[in-house]
Write a sequence for this structure.
């Protein structure tokens, strides 16, 4: 905990330093970690292949940095407070020493199962302490974890296992979410049945459901770790060895496996954590994300532990047993830094202030937002009623691909402007480009947000397909990393994110490609063709609007068809991707060359009745009138 900038002036001078001399800047920060061997070269890069190497030749194990390194001074300090879904059930705590010991035990277990450096291990788990143990045990043995959010369907799980050729799944019998229980084990059984790479499935008992265990494949978590030693010599990793794969959606095709490596990711997550949240010794930090998303990876697991923090893992949901749950947890643990998503703020805002005012939120010092643009109304409500006009809001813009927070205020050091993420962190060099790739220098002009220099936690590749990485992020504008977002800069140089400029939709902070939802719809027996667009949604930020052309449907009720289409998306991706609206249509607006004119469909979904701009290239303009007439 020694990476913290302490004033805005210091931020400005550090920023300057980081731009003028990036290698020295990051090299000095990297020195504060523990390395088994120092790196040979701080940075070696080009964005055209792309090739990005930070701290190459350096040897380390990230778990030595987040566990062993802290033990002399923090063995008895709480690493995590676990708050269960059931408000009346007892929580748990785990200290740094206990976490170390459990990670080593499981590492020994993984080794016994034959897991080796470089093997891929898939983690499909609830929000429990053992999920962190599983993640860190992979890192300790040098295996590459691929965490799959437990809300994804068994098909989505299977796709990701196949892409990564994972040999092991770590899962649980089930999970608790609000009033529901989800049977995870059956989903895994279904998912892995055709995955030839899978050798074993480790099953943690979370809901006491006593699932069927497949002989020779399935192993009970506690049976595996029983009697195992609580020491394990951490595998030496090169700074550029893979730490994890995390699948995320893009405009086209199936989700791709974003690859992060050991050294750079370690340096950047810890640095950004301490600075953005202005985390102090003894503070209690709470990030409400799920471990299955990048926010959970970087700011529940890696950043806080690397910095020796104490934080919370919450199993439940914001509205169970009532909409005061977040605030009750903040009061209970005297949370100092609270980090959540705009969609949660908007949901809770709708429940009124009585439920907020029952709780003492005076411990809060910094409150954060992540995942999607925060609208002004939600910003103000958060600032006044949660922060009591007294806590800075850090509106943190970043992506799965960036590994850590890129644009944000630093606690109470930076000026704020509602709906603006703010300034780049040290080392981050954003630019706005116009359609021709020229850098926009004027203020208040929208452009494509790109980065012109690498930072330590930038993605290195997309697993198994380097060309895809190149084409998606490094080919739109030569020499730049392309984010997929549109943004503006105000007169003070603060950035405001407008939103995605590609076919990615952001539903409650969850990212989906329109193409992947269309693919799921098209597997349905009634569907001939479909087109999916996002539209503004009061709570979710964006909702999913699907236009579907169906066949063989004359003798079916409309509701039966839409229910069946919805089910196809639940099965293909997961319930989190269910369309909010499904409109059955007889045709889609296409150009003469057969391209769907999504621009028009987006406008209709937004409620527009006419004014569709240039429609002269449409093959059959009457399709549009018909869709408008029947629009939902
Ligand atoms: C996309 C990345 C890493 C955070 C979790 C989502 C949008 C993220 C903000 C913000 C406006 C934001 C962007 C980005 N986004 N944070 N503070 N303000 N938009 O990670 O799933 O990789 O999605 O989320 O559109 O490109 P992700």
């Amino acid at each position: 905990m020694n990476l913290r900038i302490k004033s805005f002036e210091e931020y400005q001078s550090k920023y300057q330093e980081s731009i003028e001399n990036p290698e020295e800047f990051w090299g000095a920060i990297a020195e504060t970690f523990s390395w088994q061997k120092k790196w040979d070269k701080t940075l070696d890069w080009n964005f055209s292949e792309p090739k990005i190497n930070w701290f190459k030749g350096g040897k380390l194990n990230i778990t030595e940095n987040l566990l062993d390194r802290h033990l002399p001074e923090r063995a008895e300090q709480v690493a995590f407070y676990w708050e269960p879904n059931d408000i009346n059930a007892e929580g748990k705590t785990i200290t740094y020493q206990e976490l170390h010991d459990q990670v080593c035990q499981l590492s020994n277990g993984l080794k016994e199962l034959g897991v080796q450096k470089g093997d891929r291990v898939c983690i499909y788990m609830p929000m429990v302490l053992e999920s962190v143990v599983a993640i860190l045990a992979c890192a300790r043995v040098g295996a590459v974890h691929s965490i799959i959010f437990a809300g994804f369907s068994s098909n989505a799980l299977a796709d990701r296992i196949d892409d990564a050729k994972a040999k092991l799944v770590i899962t649980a019998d089930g999970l608790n979410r609000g009033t529901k229980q989800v049977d995870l084990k059956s989903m895994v059984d279904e998912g892995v049945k055709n995955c030839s790479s899978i050798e074993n499935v480790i099953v943690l008992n979370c809901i006491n459901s006593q699932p069927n265990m497949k002989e020779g494949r399935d192993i009970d978590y506690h049976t595996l770790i029983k009697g195992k030693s609580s020491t394990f010599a951490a595998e030496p990793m090169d700074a550029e060895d893979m730490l994890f794969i995390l699948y995320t959606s893009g405009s086209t095709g199936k989700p791709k496996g974003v690859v992060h490596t050991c050294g750079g990711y370690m340096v950047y997550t810890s640095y950004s954590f301490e600075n953005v949240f202005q985390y102090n010794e003894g503070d209690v930090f709470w990030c409400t994300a799920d471990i299955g998303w990048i926010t959970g990876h970087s700011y529940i697991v890696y950043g806080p532990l690397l910095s020796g923090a104490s934080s919370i893992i919450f199993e439940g949901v914001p509205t169970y047993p009532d909409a005061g749950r977040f605030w009750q947890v903040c009061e209970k643990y005297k949370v100092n830094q609270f980090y959540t998503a705009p969609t949660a703020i908007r949901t809770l805002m709708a429940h009124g202030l009585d439920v907020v005012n029952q709780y003492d939120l005076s411990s809060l010092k910094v409150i954060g937002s992540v995942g999607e643009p925060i609208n002004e109304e939600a910003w103000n409500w958060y600032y006044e009623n949660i922060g009591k006009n007294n806590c800075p809001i850090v509106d943190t813009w970043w992506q799965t691909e960036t590994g850590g927070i890129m644009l944000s205020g630093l606690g109470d050091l930076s000026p704020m402007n509602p709906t603006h993420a703010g300034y780049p962190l040290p080392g981050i060099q954003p630019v706005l480009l116009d359609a021709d790739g020229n850098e926009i220098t004027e203020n208040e002009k929208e452009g494509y947000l790109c980065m012109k220099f690498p930072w330590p936690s930038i993605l290195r590749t997309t697993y198994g397909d380097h060309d895809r990485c190149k084409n998606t992020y490094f080919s739109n504008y030569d020499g730049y990393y392309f984010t997929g977002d549109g943004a503006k800069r105000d007169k003070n140089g603060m950035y405001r994110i407008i939103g995605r400029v590609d076919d990615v939709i952001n539903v409650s902070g969850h990212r989906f490609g329109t193409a992947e939802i269309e693919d799921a719809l098209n597997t349905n027996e009634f569907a001939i063709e479909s087109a999916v667009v996002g539209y503004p949604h009061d709570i979710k930020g964006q909702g999913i609007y699907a236009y579907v052309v169906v066949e063989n449907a004359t003798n079916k009720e409309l509701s039966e068809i839409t229910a069946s289409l919805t089910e196809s998306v639940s099965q293909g991706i997961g319930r989190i991707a269910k369309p909010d609206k499904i409109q059955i249509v007889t045709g889609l607006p296409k150009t003469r060359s057969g391209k769907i004119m999504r621009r028009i469909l987006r406008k209709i979904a937004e409620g527009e009745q006419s004014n569709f701009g240039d429609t002269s290239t449409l093959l059959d303009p009457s399709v549009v009138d018909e869709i408008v007439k029947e629009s939902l």
Notes: The chain has a mean pLDDT of 96.
